[in-house]
Hints:
It comes from Telluria antibiotica. This is histidine kinase. It is an enzyme of class 2 (transferase). Its EC number is 2.7.13.3. The chain is an alpha/beta fold. Among the domains are: about 110 residues, Response regulator (Rossmann fold); about 150 residues, Histidine kinase-like ATPase, C-terminal domain (Heat Shock Protein 90, 2-Layer Sandwich), CATH 3.30.565.10; about 130 residues, Rossmann fold (3-Layer(aba) Sandwich). The protein is about 50% helix and about 15% strand. It has 16 helices and 17 strands. Helix 3 packs parallel to helix 4 and helix 13 runs parallel beside helix 14. It is elongated and about 135 Å long. The chain starts with 7 loop residues before the first strand and ends in a 20-residue tail after the last helix.
Amino acid sequence: xxxxxxxxxxxxxxxxxxxxxxxxxxxxxxxxxxxxxxxxxxxxxxxxxxxxxxxxxxxxxxxxxxxxxxxxxxxxxxxxxxxxxxxxxxxxxxxxxxxxxxxxxxxxxxxxxxxxxxxxxxxxxxxxxxxxxxxxxxxxxxxxxxxxxxxxxxxxxxxxxxxxxxxxxxxxxxxxxxxxxxxxxxxxxxxxxxxxxxxxxxxxxxxxxxxxxxxxxxxxxxxxxxxxxxxxxxxxxxxxxxxxxxxxxxxxxxxxxxxxxxxxxxxxxxxxxxxxxxxxxxxxxxxxxxxxxxxxxxxxxxxxxxxxxxxxxxxxxxxxxxxxxxxxxxxxxxxxxxxxxxxxxxxxxxxxxxxxxxxxxxxxxxxxxxxxxxxxxxxxxxxxxxxxxxxxxxxxxxxxxxxxxxxxxxxxxxxxxxxxxxxxxxxxxxxxxxxxxxxxxxxxxxxxxxxxxxxxxxxxxxxxxxxxxxxxxxxxxxxxxxxxxxxxxxxxxxxxxxxxxxxxxxxxxxxxxxxxxxxxxxxxxxxxxxxxxxxxxxxxxxxxxxxxxxx
Length: 551
């Protein structure tokens, strides 16, 4: 056992000779009894030692100048850390009962009278040293027990979590099996109708009415198959973060009204009471995806509401949010299903006839699309046969102003902006430059990142179309350098890249780009972005003669 682990004894005495005698006597037995001896010449010195060390016992002289033994003992026991240290008072006179009571009130554990009898001193000290060692052993055992308890609690939590994950995996596996069975059912139904109609067309003697009817059936069922495939692909893209939103300010009320017009035109709503209360509510969103959300919710209400039922659709701007609410008087949602209604592959009770049809992925797609827009979706229902309500909340934005149109006209009048195209694929760069040229855009070209930065600083284009995977320095570094230079900090930067995940879009925007477009870029999308850029006044940017392609 090292000195730091040994129990310590503190001897406190103002008389140097007495202090030396006691410490020398104790040190004779220190190795055999496995303790360490420290000393102090005053009460103040004793208090400092108590702050530095833990002691098995303190031998404290009663008669000391300044702070006597009783005052020192009281001060030692006032501190929480040293409150339990046993103190043996050492005195040269026989204490009467009053003195003994006073000593015990100050925390005395025992008395020693001088001259000290060595055997008595050793016996008393060994008792407290043994007690200190036992306490230290118990403390270490308690720490080990506490650590073991913590480990067992952590292990138990891990096992419980693993059991829950296993049960969830089993539920998911079962749901997937049911989903595959539903998918087979949903695909075979239209395929069967198409097969029968096709066979009918090839039969001799079939009348024109039957042929016309068969063609209508083939067209309708083909469209049904197409919708199934589109839903599957959209859900896959949404779950993997591959859907990129093309945002603009739009009115949810106008969008929902357009969706309702489509349902009415197809006759889907003729057997229902539709109550639509649509007040303007502007959001920053993707029109196609928001229309998909509204269509899925309305279709869901129609699918699960019997003919003659009531469907209420409201749009309202509430505080900082725009709220779309679709309520129906249909079959409702069972309490056990309600918490999972937006989970993938979850649908209500499956029956043989499956009168409602569908794959049960529409609401999962709704949730993912709403989350991509920074919104929330919730469902509520009193229970079976009591109807249900779905509510979408999206961040509200200011309404689009009519002044946008004159501003765009002014931009057109100002001339085409200069475009710097930074792309290492020669063929791709050449075709993109040629295409932009046919629309009247002056184009600069660079074949790598460093050349692109040099050309931007030399010619100060209005827009830079930058590939991400460039040699030399990549597109992220190109954007950072252009933003750091005062002359090019205002250039509109558009990333053209084959990387289309949400993480890629985040990295692009963090690097300083204004827009992230995924290859192959739709021409109209790119032209819309360029149309919003104002060209510099004459004399700035690209000279009249276009330079030859670089790189």
